[in-house]
Design brief:
Blueprint lengths: L2 H31 L3 H7 L11 H21 L6 H23 L3 H25 L1 H27 L1
Length: 161
């Protein structure tokens, strides 16, 4: 391990743990609040290109780790980060609420519009992250791609159900 990385981890180790825990905890708590999501998803009429249900928690775990790393990189940069991190937290809250709207309330059209708002905020977050730390922005791109795909699934499920 190089000296700069050792110094960063020694200086910001706690912040890295928090940055990873926050999105992972948001995802886990959302999952706890939507305990029947797998059963509901399995019963829905789904569009072509729908993934198997087991793939969702795997992908989301990876995405939450990427998001946490991205927020850590922004937080530890030398630039002013409050607007970018505030927007990051806002889109993370929208992410948290989407499952509740979609699975618990089964309001598929409202969930789609909620997802669209989240998608828009993710784009702005990526732009702000890019201005602060390019690798942080790049770490958010898989999340944007997955949410775009989720938008396709969400809208199609609304139309099919």
């Amino acid at each position: 391990m190089n000296q700069q990385l050792k110094h960063t981890l020694k200086t910001y180790g706690r912040e890295l743990i928090y940055a990873l825990i926050i999105p992972l905890a948001a995802g886990a708590f959302s999952s706890v609040l939507t305990p029947d999501s797998s059963e509901i998803f399995n019963m829905l009429n789904k569009p072509p290109l729908s993934p198997p249900g087991w793939l969702f928690p795997v992908v989301w775990t990876v995405l939450y780790i990427f998001m946490g790393l991205a927020s850590f990189l922004v937080y530890t940069s030398d630039k002013y980060t409050k607007p970018a991190l505030t927007l990051y937290c806002t889109q993370l809250f929208l992410n948290f609420m989407w499952s509740i709207i979609f699975f618990n309330l089964q309001m598929y059209l409202a969930a789609f519009f909620w997802l669209f708002l989240m998608w828009f905020l993710i784009i702005i977050t990526i732009v702000l992250f890019y201005e602060i730390c390019k690798p942080a922005a790049y770490l958010m791109i898989p999340y944007l791609v997955w949410v775009t795909y989720a938008g396709y699934l969400n809208l199609a499920i609304y139309m099919l159900n």
